[in-house]
């Protein structure tokens, strides 16, 4: 169950997307998040979806794998879909079940919001799937560089991020291990009535917290003994390298935004 | 209770880019009442096999027969509680599974899940704490206030309290001091004999395997490459070497003794005591070197 989750995972590869500079990719995703909101009709949402699928294709991640790994997100998506479906009024009345009326506008909104959700999740997943956590952090640190002037602890923030990203898979594995140990003792999280399931979470969460704190302490000690003292005057082993492809990808995004703007109603 | 693995194959994260094959065509019979040691190099698939013994993992190929219950590849097994009640697993570093407010409650967690009445669960917990050599008064303490060795014992008590028919041990003494190791391994052995448990020990320690087990299975590269009587397996040094394993210390010493003195001992020494006895016997009888 846990091993199928792909949040924060990185799949090494050598696609065009993998080779892009992390700074370009991060900028790209952030701009993309803003651009998504330009779309407001069927054509623009279709373009949006097509563009995202193109990105998936270029990253050489199997679509099946992406969809399978993001299953939990789809539950959330379905939830928002139905929320919009039932509670948005306007347009012609399509049908009504009991006291719930479903309007044309509600269906439209539901579909649009779901697509918006989907492309956002896909794009950000592509970022983390094709960029190693270390490069993401390096990228963010450089991009946030200017904020050092207003005393923003950029290096520390980047470090915190990379540590949390680094520990996601570790904690996932640990969760699996503890889950199995408790299942062997007859606790059953996967089945039974909701009340039972909630109760079964406690024996999972407490050991997980205990071990997370222990890990944090060990890590702090390990950093301390190796003389870590923050970002001041620290040099880099990995150098970032901005190439023509990176500029091109951002230009492409600007063109895409223009296209959306043009077809927007 | 018999456990039979039939041509079991298992891949982790099947159908994802992270797919990793762990087991191929493993056939292994664990007869009721036996003490089986599973040995093998790191990454040989020992721990994966172990998780099939109570259906925590379901094979991606082949089938596992646990008592009467058959777990087959491709079908989703439900209601596994019965199986898990009968097969208790002590995982590696089991102290990681402790969670409850008090030691007593933590030990009672397993039995209560399996429908044991509260009074009975409490009685078992109290008895086990004593058997495991934990100080009195530990029952009402938080498990997180104990020392590492004590936490390990509490966790083991939590599994034993389920009173399983089959006890599966995954390196149960890793990281303990030598004396604690011996005490706990001896306790498992005593339970094995007194209650007629079927015991499966996954271990790196050839010495433990030799001392306690009567059957040994060797895992290598996700395959079960050899099974047999403990003496046969450890007498076959060539085979052990093929799988990057060494015979237990006692056997190595016996071989060296035999080589240096020219005497041959009667039987393969599986424990220090047995080795000492055979050496003494060979020397006092005044055997002639061959």
Q: Tell me about the largest β-sheet of chain A.
A: 2 strands, antiparallel
Q: Please give the domain count of chain A.
A: 2
- Residue fraction in strands of chain A: under 5%
Give the oligomeric state.
heterodimer
The CATH architecture designation of the largest domain in chain B is: 3-Layer(aba) Sandwich
Q: Given the structure, what is the number of helices of chain A?
A: 10
Summarize model confidence as the mean pLDDT of chain B: 90
Number of strands of chain A: 2
Distance between the termini of chain A: 43 Å
CATH class of the largest domain in chain B: Alpha Beta
Largest interface: A-B, 27 and 30 residues
Query: Judging from the principal axes of the Cα atoms, what is the shape of chain A?
Result: flat
Overall geometry of chain B: globular
General description of the model:
The complex is a heterodimer of chains A (265) and B (290). Helices cover 69% and strands 3% of the residues of chain A. Chain A has helices at 16-19, 22-35, 42-59, 63-69, 71-87, 104-130, 133-144, 154-184, 194-225, 244-263; strands at 93-97, 100-103. Chain A has a two-stranded antiparallel ribbon with strand order 1-2. In chain A, helix 2 (22-35) packs antiparallel against helix 6, helix 2 packs parallel to helix 10 and helix 3 runs parallel beside helix 6. Chain B is α/β, with parallel strands linked by helices and 290 residues long. Chain B has helices at 46-52, 81-86, 103-113, 118-131, 148-160, 178-194, 206-212, 230-235, 237-242, 249-261, 272-284; strands at 3-12, 20-30, 35-40, 61-66, 69-72, 87-90, 166-170, 198-203, 215-220, 223-229. The mean pLDDT of chain B is 90. At the A-B interface, helix 4, helix 8 and helix 9 of A face helix 2 and helix 3 of B.
Question: Secondary-structure blueprint of this entry?
Answer:
The complex is a heterodimer of chains A (265) and B (290).
Chain A lengths: L15 H4 L2 H14 L6 H18 L3 H7 L1 H17 L5 E5 L2 E4 H27 L2 H12 L9 H31 L9 H32 L18 H20 L2
Antiparallel strand pairs in A: 1-2
Helix pairs in contact in A: 2-6, 2-7, 2-10, 3-6, 3-10, 5-6, 7-8, 8-9
Chain B lengths: L2 E10 L7 E11 L4 E6 L5 H7 L8 E6 L2 E4 L8 H6 E4 L12 H11 L4 H14 L16 H13 L5 E5 L7 H17 L3 E6 L2 H7 L2 E6 L2 E7 H6 L1 H6 L6 H13 L10 H13 L6
Parallel strand pairs in B: 3-8, 3-9, 6-7, 7-8
Antiparallel strand pairs in B: 1-2, 1-4, 4-5, 9-10
